[in-house]
Structure formats: C-alpha cells, structure tokens
Amino acid sequence: MRFLTAFLLLACGLAQAQTPPPPQPYQASDPLSWELKNARWFDGRAIQRGNLYVENGVFVAKKPAKVNRKMDLRGQQVLINPLAEAHNHNLQTAWGWGQFAQAYLDEGVFYAAMLCGDPAGVAEVKPLAATPAAPDVSFVTACITSSDGYPLAAVLPEPTPAAAAAQQQIVLIDSPEQAAQQWRAIKARGGTWLRIVLAHSERPELRGQPQHFGRLGLNPETAAALTRLAHADGKRVVAHAESAADFEAALAAGADVIAHLPGYANTLDESPERFALSEAAAARAARQRTAVITTTAATALFKLDAGPLAALREVQKANLARLQAAGVQLLIGSDVFIGTARAELRSLDELGLDRTTLLRLATQDTPRALFPNRRLGCFEPGCEASFLVLGGDPIADLAQVDMPQLRVKQGRLLTRLAEVAASSSQASTSTADPPKKAAAKKKTGKAKAQSKAPSKAKRR
User: Fold this and answer.
1) Which one of 32, 63, 221, 428 is separated from 115 by 20 to 30 angstroms, measured CA to CA?
2) pLDDT at residue 437 above 80?
3) Domain range for residue 88?
4) Using H for helix, E for strand and C for coil, what is the string for 45-82?
C-alpha cells in the first residue's frame, strides 16, 4: 500500500543524496520607487489597465517624486500578485529550506504554510525566512495525532508503539483526558495554529491491526476536545482529513481549516463514494466559515492506474463543485514535497476550475488567509507592492504563470544577479521616457545681440 508521506520522505532522502547544488540564490534590491505605465493587472475579477506607482514597498496613488525604475509595459505584459502555498512541509527544516526555498521564488510563490514542523527544526529556519529574498512562511509546530496515527508510519524507521512513544516531533493523544493533561506542553511548542489528524475516523475496527499502525488518527471526541482547548487559548486549528466522514468530524469539532479535499488519495482502496461530500456537509462548512485546502496535485504521487485515478478525479470535481456552490472558502495547497502551489494550480485547471476563480484563489484568497493582518493580493494604494510580471494574459493562457519575467517583493527587485540587485536603486535607463531631443546649437555673439535688442526696447 502506497502512502503519500512515505513517498515524500523517500523523495526527500533521495534528493539529499542526488540533488545537484541549487542555482545562484535570489538577491533583493533596496526598496525601489516604480512607475509602471500602460500596465495591465489582474484584480481578482478581470484584467485592469492604467498606471501603477510604488513607493516605500507599497502601491501609491501618485507618481513618487523620485523614481528608480520606470517601465512602459505598452499594454502587453500582465501583472499578478504572487502565489501562495497553503499546505506543504518542504520548508520546515534547514535542509529543506536549502533545497526548495529558491524554487518557491523562482515559481512566483512568495507565501507558504508549513503544517507539521517540530519547534527545534523550525527555530533553525525562521532566521532564513526573515530576509527580503525569501518566501514568507507560516509554521505549525504543534502537530497532533493518535499513538497509532498518521504520519508515524512514515517518519519512524520502525513503526512500533515503543518507537512512536520515544519520538518528539509529533504529539500523541488518545483521549480528551490526555488532551487536557498535555495541553500545557502543547502550548509550549508555540505558534498560533494547531494541526490535528483525522484519518479513517469512521473505521475503529482498523485499530490494533499491525498493517495500519501509524496510519490512522484521532477519534472525533479527542479532536473536538483539542479544538476547544485551542480556541480557548486563541489558537486556530487545521484538521487533516482523508474521508468524507473525517471531513464531517472536523466540522463537528469546529476546525477552522480542513487540509485535504476528500478524494485526494485512497490509501485503503475503498469505494470512491466514501470520499463524496454531502450537500449538508458543504453547507455546514460554509456556515461555520471553515476553509478547505485542496491538495489535488498530491493524487499524482500515488501513481494510480487509469481507472482508479479517473474515479478519484470525478469525486474531486464533484466535491469542488459542491463546496463552491455552498460558498466554502477554498485555499490553494499542493502537499507536494518536491513542488509548490504551481503544481496545484495546474491540477485544479485540469479539473476544470474556472480560470478567473483559480487565479483569485492563488493570488488573493490564499495569501490573505495565511497572513490576515497584511494587505496582500491587491494593487490599490496601501497594498504591499509584491507582484509578478508575466508575458501575457494568464486567464487566456495559464502557462504564462510558469514564466515570470520579473519578480518584485515589497518593492524590491528579486534577481539572481547580485550586481543588478546592488545597483537597482541608482538612476537607470527607462523604458517609459521618450528619446531626448538633440541640444540646440549655441548662438553666435551677433545673434545674441539681435535677440537681446527687442527686450531692451521693450524695457524702455
């Protein structure tokens, strides 16, 4: 049986041994003032046209007094806000950061959430993320499952009860009473988010079977107790879900976000109907304002045969449609360890999600959900001036997102050329200014005298 996390960790180990050195890292210029004439940009609904101005890292209404960079886009290129990745694990260790952080910038993904890091590992990464030429990352450092729960089978060399009890990365809870007893230690792990794991919660008969050890999760009562404790302390909860029953259990617990659209995987080779969401569940998610992270790109990692894959894809399409019809907030997340949100963008496009909606989710809704106290995903005055310059309209051709021509983060030019980053704040050649006219020849002495004569007469 193939499990997603096991595959990802295997890929991680192989990458450590075989991945070539990463390319030259991105450098960030000083914050620049920009004048973008004849620009086109995506505002979440359509392509708008006009002039854009940037000063002190934000968009402003008027042209700055001093402009470092002038560009006349001539109505050809299109600006979009950077993408966001709501579910991954590849930036929550120092090694992972070294391997994948530059790929995030390269693919135009400036915002990310890492959903199961341990406090010590994340402490090493946070200084790396706190630099201008780095993706902005939200870390979850309290990841909770049952003593026989997911992802223990993937992270332990030998998935046994003794090994599970000895590890420190994941918190193990089996009852509401244990949740209350360990809450102080859970709080000490820090962070504003808690991740709880629900996996086949409707199948209690699987417990005690050796082949399923480390692949299950919390029972619904324990999930609800942990969510109540988290909310009482001002923390939010993201719930891992596998089946439609897990989805409903997460809603009953009061989770703020559900990670995984049911049907992203079928690790028990069950009937696809077990992953189909009901209209009642979708309506409840909308009523409770519970967001759902899609992660449909992760399905490709399981290498399913054509028939089972097609069946899961149909369930995914139906679930997406039902959630959208109910008004549930969707967030873009891939859970692809060797990738970024761009993989999820392509997957959802293949599933037929409306292109305009897809771009809005990736560039507006998801960044704002990850960093709710910042003005992201917009081009109005006061919004953070972070954007990608594309060669054409991504609504007409999504492949344009794969080829950013320019990356700007809070007014800073991101480039792999250190000398360009260092010199960007100096006066530079503009694509917006008309050619300068040749200077007029100096007048001769006689001509000067003739030109002055009328003015003298006028003074009389």
Assistant:
1) 221
2) no
3) 4-25+82-383
4) CCEEEEEEEEECCEEECCCCCCCCEEEECCCCCEEECC
Q: How many helices (H) and strands (E) does the chain have?
A: 15, 19
Domain annotation covers residue 184 = yes
- Give the chain's domain count: 1
Is there a contact between 157 and 151 (Cβ–Cβ < 8 Å)? Answer: no
Residue 36 lies in a domain: no
Instruction: Retrieve residue 62's tokens.
Output: 């008027």
Render pLDDT for 308-353 as a digit per residue (tens, 0 to 9). 999 999 999 999 999 999 999 999 999 999 999 999 999 999 999 9
User: Which residue has 């990310």 as its token pair?
Assistant: 112
Nearest to 320 by CA among 284, 365, 275: 275
| pLDDT at position 202 over 50 | yes
Q: In the chain, how long is the greatest CA-to-CA distance?
A: 113
Tens digits of per-residue pLDDT, 379-416?
999 999 999 999 999 999 999 999 999 999 999 999 99
Is 247 a domain residue?
Answer: yes
Take residue 131 and report the two structure tokens written for it. Answer: 């630099």
Q: How many residues does the chain have?
A: 460
The dihedral through the CA atoms of 174, 175, 177, 179 has a sign that is positive
Answer whether residue 14 is part of any domain: yes
Q: In Å, what is the CA distance from 442 to each residue of 434, 436, 439? A: 24, 18, 9
Can you read off the two tokens belonging to residue 220?
A: 């619904």
Q: How far is it, in rounded angstroms, from Cα 231 to Cα 127? A: 28
- Say which CATH number the domain at 263 has: 3.20.20.140
Rounded Cα distance between 51 and 62, Å, is 9
Residue 304 near residue 342, CB atoms below 8 Å: no
Bridging pattern class, strands 109-114 and 136-139: parallel
Q: How would DSSP label each residue in 101-163?
A: HHHHHHTTEEEEEE-S--HHHHHHHHHHHSSTTS-EEEE---EEE-TTBTTHHHH-SS--HHH
Sign of CA dihedral 241, 243, 246, 251: positive
Find tokens 């969510």 and name the residue.
227
pLDDT tens, 45-76?
Answer: 999 999 999 999 999 999 999 999 999 999 88
